[in-house]
Amino acid sequence: MSHASRTATGHFDSAATAFRQWDEAGTVPAACSRCHTSTGAAQYALDEVSTRQSPAVSLECSTCHSDLRTFALKDAGETSFPAGVRLGYENIDDSSNLCLSCHTGTTSGADVTATIGATRADEPSGKMDLPVQHPGSAAAILFGSEAHSLYEYPGQKYSADFYHPGGGDTCLSCHDAHTLKVDGTQCVRCHGVSDPEKVRWVNATQDYNGNGNLNEGLAEEIESLKQQLYAKMQWYAGVYMDTPLAYTPDTSPYYFKDNNNNGVVDPEEINPQNAFTIWTPRLLRAAYNYHAIASDAGAYAHNGDYVLQILFDAIRDLGGSVKGLARPTP
């Protein structure tokens, strides 16, 4: 059994929450079926329409393949993103456009702007509901300021879609379509490492997180800035709302009141009545960006420049010091 696996991997993991979440209800809502059922995905790929579906075991070969004898891939063009734009890859033959329709995310920076309305930047309000980005929104990050998936601060410029010299900037140029695993061996040729999390720009001289270490991978740089933003969000919540805030990536609505002020969400704090619901516009937009970035495990690879720019601006907007930090040039 040493080489056996109890469940399939990636899109065929029939035990995953992505497919089992609706078993008890017996139906998958229209908003979810386009990505979480094989029939819904096929329907959406055909005409971008989603309807209620029965729970699926997993995705199927026919979800992406038009011919199960030759395994020819379905043709796919541009996909609609929540910000109201249509984006896709041009002149490629690996059908990465098929991946985009399920990884566009569910919200955009425009939702944050609409939620805030005319509320003043530091005015606490219980009438603003935090827009929440769906986990796994890789394409939303990848297309950067073209997709506008994150809240982009007024007056700032942001990087557009991620471009990688020599290829490596589409979904299937890095990910295995079935297992979703990343092949890091191709990184060695230029970056000298096979672990994608250790990759940083070739001949990079910028220290983005301000700790003086120029040998950190881009993932480490971003994680450090995330920690700095999180600490600033907690400070701000305590000062402006007199309510300690804590975040967990595992349970909606993700932000809860930190009743014992220990910096983390404890099991007894995870309940709807303890959700963090009083926001100021300044904290709301930082919280939205933080969760959206945290929800994409590969954000550093999908568009590191865009993510660093957003984190830098969010820290500064909350009143944090950016001395020693660096913001990539768009």
Give the topology, please.
Layout (H helix, E strand, L loop, with lengths): L16 H4 L9 H7 L1 H10 L13 H4 E3 L4 E2 L5 E2 L5 E2 L9 H4 L8 H8 L21 H5 L45 H4 L26 H23 L4 E3 L7 E3 L23 H14 L4 H19 L13
Antiparallel strand pairs: 1-2, 3-4, 5-6
Helix pairs in contact: 2-3, 6-10, 9-10, 9-11, 10-11
Low-confidence stretches: none
- Whole-number mean pLDDT: 93
Query: Multimeric state of these chains?
Result: single chain
Q: What sequence of helices (H) and strands (E) makes up the elements?
A: HHHHEEEEHHHHHEEHH
What share of the residues does DSSP label as strand, in percent?
under 5%
Q: What is the general shape? A: globular
Computed over alpha carbons, the radius of gyration is 21 Å
What does this entry look like structurally?
This protein has 330 residues and is mainly α. Helix content is 31%, strand content 5%. The protein has eleven helices and six strands. A two-stranded antiparallel ribbon has the order 1-2. The protein has a two-stranded antiparallel sheet with strand order 3-4. Strand 3 (79-80) and strand 4 form a beta hairpin. Helix 6 runs antiparallel to helix 10 (281-294), helix 9 (218-240) runs parallel beside helix 11 and helix 10 (281-294) runs antiparallel to helix 11.
Summarize the structure in short:
Helix 2 crosses helix 3, helix 9 (218-240) runs antiparallel to helix 10 (281-294) and helix 9 (218-240) packs parallel to helix 11.
Question: Tags for this entry?
Answer:
330 residues; two-stranded antiparallel sheet; 11 helices; 5% strand; globular; mainly alpha
